[in-house]
Every structure is written in C-alpha cells, then in structure tokens.
Amino acid sequence: MTPPGAAGAAEAVACEVFRRHGEDFARARRAAGWTNATWLGGALAVRVAGTEGSGDLERETRLAAVLPPEVGYPRVLETGTSHGLQWVATARIPAVPLDEAWDGLDWDRRIGATRQLWARARAVHRADPAAAAPLARPRNPFYAVSPGESAQSLRRLHAAGVLTDGELHRLLRALDRHWTALPAARAVLNHGDLSPVNALWDGASVVSLLDFEFAVLAPVHLDLNELVKLAYAPPDQDTAPTGPDAAGRRRLQEAVRELARPFLRTRTDVDLLLGHSIQLEAWGLERELAKPGREAFRTWEPYRMLVACAHRDGGCYAPLLDG
Q: Are 225 and 280 in contact (CB under 8 A)?
C-alpha cells in the first residue's frame, strides 16, 4: 500500500500521465496493490511507485522486454519519473485479477485457470537467464539471502512465543536441508509473487501475468511453491469445504500434483520447495504479527502452514509429496 504521505503525490503523477495520453483521470479507478499505486481507466493502466527512490518499476519495464510473449505482459507505452516517483503506463488489458474472479468460477474453470497460470509462469522460466540477470531484483523481500537470515526470522517468532522449542528446531533443520540443496540448483527467472492477484482473467482464460517487481533468479521451486500453495494451503477453519466443494478441491489438488510432479522427483527438489515455503510463511507471519489483533495468530494461514511443516514431513504439502 502506498504510504499516506505519498498518496497525494502518486495520484498527481497518475493524473498527469492520464492527461498526456488523452484519458479522463476522473473516470479511472484505483486498483488493489500494496507496493505501488495503480489506476485503470479507458485504454490505460498507470502504476506509480509507492516511495521515492524505488527502482522497481524501471527494472520491471526493462525486464518486460526480455519476457517471452507467452507471458502476456501488457504493452509498455511510456515510463518516467515525476515528482521523484517512478511510473509506468501500459496498455490496459480488458480483464480482472484472477483472485477477484475466483469465487465466481466453478471448479472446472478454477482448474483450467490454475493450469493456465502455471503455463504463463513456465514461459517466464524460459526467459534467457543471462539477459534477465541484470534486470531481475537483487533479492526478493519474501525470502532470505543467507541461512542466518532465514534462521533469524524463525528465532524471532520463537522469541515472540509463536513457535515452540520443538517447532523451531524442526523448521531450522528443514531450512538447513534447503540451503544445502540450493547451490547446485539451476536458477531460472521466477515471477517471485505468483499469486492469482497478479494474473488477469478475461472471463474465459488467464491472459496475462503482471507485476514483476519481485522477479528474481532462483530455482523454479520458488514459483512452484505458490502454485502448490494455491491447492494445498489449509482452508479457513470456519469455511472448510464440504460436498461438491470438497470434491472440487481434491480435483484441483490432483491437477496441481500433475503440474508439480516433474519438479519434485528427488528429495533435493522437496527440500527446495519446503525451504521456500517456510521462508514465505515466516515472512507473512511476521508481517501480520505487526498489525493489531495478533492474539488470533493461531488461526492465520502462515502460522498453520509453519506449524504443520514442523509437525509432519511436508506439512500441508504432505499429500502431494507422499503420493
């Protein structure tokens, strides 16, 4: 989310860009997003950096030029910096974020959308690593860059009374296996935030992947974790699926199992997947604990996923990994 002090400046920048492209900013709508501010109107989409000095949008714009066309990245019209804030204007794609459409889709279309989401991600993975390396982010903020950094995140959760001694010990051992496997793993360009939030659905199919500001070179398991999580993360405790929804969820899991199987052939693959999962959930849990209402943390998805991983090999992903 754009910091309150920068909100007015970001809106002023977007207004200028809309005016220059002959679009009526008064009719534009603000889209969701927590790192940049985005407005959609007419044939235009404008993203404005949330803070001065951020180079993420410039980096993403340059990265877009080396992405395969199968990614569906929108056509870049113009980029620049105004009032200290970077911005990019792209051709608006007539579609909505997949996460907004998800609840209204039947299970057949959800499964189809999941397959299409992964197909777009696989196109990202085919980008030339040498061309992408100078343009990708030096690090993704959701993941650590060293064993010590990832361990410290878990130790902070332990010190806060969120993880028990045993849970901390078992999660640290899983991270040790991850870091041992990482140096030999082949690195590809990863989207870095492969969520339905960042995919566009036109009513029939996933037509685009957006928001590559967190794209990094890493093992494919970084993006794979997001795909697997879509199907295997624990449902909300108050909304556990039953009947047709339970059957639909099982079908989605089977589809994801089929997509993930080629990348989970060895124990090393599993260690890479689980290490990325632990780091992402630890980051998310720390972020949520900083907000009001932390006393309910045991009901939150990141906590439940971490604890599941600490108490069972594979955690919530065990049905996938045991199959």
A: yes
Residue 206 to residue 117: CA distance in whole angstroms: 6
pLDDT for 4:
44
Within 8 A by CB and 6+ apart from 56, the residues are 35, 36, 49, 86, 137, 213
- 35 and 152 in one domain? no
CB 10, CB 18: distance < 8 Å = no
What's the chain's average pLDDT?
Answer: 94
Q: Would you state the pLDDT for residue 305?
A: 97
Q: Which stretch of DSSP H or E encloses residue 206?
A: strand 206-209
Closest C-alpha among 154, 147, 137 to residue 281: 154
**Cα angle value 255/259/265 (rounded, 5°):** 125
Question: Distance (Å, rounded) from C-alpha 28 to C-alpha 216?
Answer: 31
CA–CA gap between residue 214 and residue 211 (Å, rounded)? 8
Residue type, 152: Q
Residue found by looking up tokens 């040790």 in the block: 176
Residues 82 and 163 in one domain: no
Distances (CA, A) of 291 to 37, 202, 287, 295, 307: 21, 34, 7, 10, 20
Whether residue 316 has pLDDT greater than 50: yes
CATH number, domain with residue 234: 3.90.1200.10
Q: Whole-angstrom distance between the N-terminal and C-terminal Cα of the chain?
A: 40
pTM exceeds 0.85, yes or no: yes
Interacting residues of 248 by C-beta distance below 8 A, sequence separation 6+: 106, 107, 110, 241
CA proximity to 141, closest of 128, 153, 127? 153
Give the SS3 label for residue 191: coil
- The verdict on 73 and 122 lying in the same domain is no
Q: Give the Cα separation of 157 and 164 in Å (integer).
A: 9
Structure tokens at 113: 């959308």
Are 241 and 312 in contact, with CB atoms under 8 Å apart?
no
